[in-house]
Amino acid sequence: IVGEEEIQKVVETMRKGDITAAGGGGVMQEWEEAFAKYSGAKYVISTNSCCAALHMSLGACGVGPGDEVVTTPYTWGQTVAPIMQQNAIPVFADIDPKTYTLDPNKIEEKIRPQTKAILVCHIYGHPVDVDPIVKIAESYDVKVIEDCAQAIGASYKGRKVGTLGHMGAFSIGDGKNMVGGEGGMVTTNSEELYERALLVGMHPARTWREIKNPK
Ligand SMILES: *Cc1c(COP(=O)(O)O)cnc(C)c1O
After folding, report:
1. Is 71 in the pocket of ligand 1 (CB under 6 A)?
2. Which of 62, 96, 179, 188 has the most CB atoms lying inside 10 A of its own CB?
3. What spacing in Å lies between the alpha carbon of 123 and ligand 1's midpoint?
4. What confidence tens digit (pLDDT) does each residue in 129-166 have?
């Protein structure tokens, strides 16, 4: 899972001392730009895990104490843990027995005034049927967050996962499709959600440099 090319790049980067996204430029910016190009997302933020990426996305979407997030009961625990880390309440909707992903027909009945987001998971690399879910979300003014931890490279109707809803969260942890030791990424096409995610998760140097709309 780790080739000679990766080892060389790590050694080269460590020799340069250029190992943080906080300073701007360097290997982290290179990586975020490469992943933006690959995923088709306008904005990418690298994180220490997908769990952190989901946590930042939930915060960016305004999920807070007592709010509800409709999500899938069939996933890895870290889809649900960040909802509770925001002191919000996971509300499980049923899955499609053929794909094991959230059934778009089972979501609307779970939406209440305190619902702030729908957190879908592309389990085993199988993309959720997300267009009808985005339609429901938009009619209730709630956000769709995609857990893409198991689905780097998966696509739906010609678009890559992580760009189908409002925000995406990826993992490059051990055992995932693409392994970087531990780590993850937030993806979004929304400048506002990008800036909000930076505020939730990042170093002040990066927020000072990159946030254009401080209000
Ligand atoms: C692995 C996984 C996560 C968590 O990823 P980390 O990078 O380990 O935090 C979240 N959701 C799903 C579906 C996963 O498989």
Report:
1. no
2. 188
3. 10
4. 999 999 999 999 999 999 999 999 999 999 999 999 99
Q: What distance in angstroms lies between residue 210's CA and the mean position of ligand 1's atoms?
A: 27
What is the Cα–Cα distance from 76 to 155, expressed in whole angstroms?
20
Q: Is 176 a catalytic residue?
A: yes
3-state secondary structure 126-182: CCCCCHHHHHHHHHCCCEEEEECCCCCCCEECCEECCCCCCEEEEECCCCCCCCCCC
Claim: this prediction has a pTM higher than 0.85: yes
Are 79 and 147 a contacting pair, CB within 8 Å? Answer: yes
Ligand 1 pocket, 149 CB below 6 A? yes
Cα 71 from Cα 123, distance rounded (Å): 12
d(CA 84, CA 104): 23
